Amino acid sequence: LCSSNTVYFSFVWLSQYFSGAAMKQFTFKGLMAPVFTAYHGSSQQVNYEIVDPYAKLLKSKGVAALLVNGTTGEGMLQTVQERKQVTEAWSAACSKHGLVLMVQIGGAPYPDVVEMARHAEGLAVDGVLCLPELYFKPKTPEKLTEYLKNVAAHCPETPFFYYHIPMFTDVNVHMPTFLNMAEKVIPNFRGIKYTSGDLDQGSACLKPGRIIFLGADSILCGAVAAGFDSFIMTTLNICPELSDKIIACMAKGDVEGGRKTQRELN
């Protein structure tokens, strides 16, 4: 006879199994633009009408993926309703123009983060990015993993990423240790956005099958040399051709050309 505990754990295992089977795959690598949020003049009302032409412009410049409600988009300054409406507008534009969409859901009280995680999954976005808890700041990889595991459980079919930006969050746990831990206990965890000038620690995060987005424009040249292949940088909204040129120069061994273009980008 099966005990109640056995039945419960079997149910949990089956739920996780079938959830994993239905999980969206995240295969993108390359340049992802963290989009700005536009407003109507001094009214401080979000300009949703600009989203579609903005998406069209970025695609014409060779950008194939977008991040919504990140630091560049100032999502943390918006209401939950505004963030959801911005996400919906970009979701429609990305579907129309064939662009990959990632949504940043953190930087809010936990119930709001959960609500936005569920909302993002309901829109079938390609990926979710999440900041750490910003008041009760996690000081260890274990505490950070625990928080993100709880959030990720509310969007189980969507690839989940952590947003590492310690200069803003003051959360600076050791990323290689955190990654090894998170990959074991968060079924939909796929990687991080790494926004830090510590290239040594960033390079230590690189591993086959793991997705690490660089978020620091000023070290692009060195990061490409170190093995980074995916990038989320504000300048991709303005001059993505410079980042393309740096990557191309480094790929063919033209280090001086890469350095020269990096200085131009900076």
CATH class: Alpha Beta
**Main sheet summary:** 8 strands, parallel, barrel
CATH topology category name: TIM Barrel
Q: So, the CATH homologous superfamily? A: Aldolase class I
Rg (CA only) = 19 Å
**With helices defined by DSSP (H or I, 4 residues minimum), what is the helix count?**
11
**Per the principal axes of the C-alpha atoms, what is the gross shape?**
globular
Q: What class, by secondary structure content?
A: alpha/beta
Indicate the percent of residues in helices.
40-55%
Widest β-sheet, arrangement of strands: 1-4-5-6-7-8-9-10
Beta-strand percent range: 5-15%
How far the N terminus sits from the C terminus, by CA atoms, comes to: 68 Å
Q: What's the structural domain tally?
A: 1
Helix-strand pattern: HEEEHEHEHEHEHHEHEHEHH
Unreliable stretches, pLDDT < 50, 5 or more residues? 1-21
CATH architecture assignment name: Alpha-Beta Barrel
User: How many individual β-strands?
Assistant: 10
What's the overall average pLDDT, rounded? 92
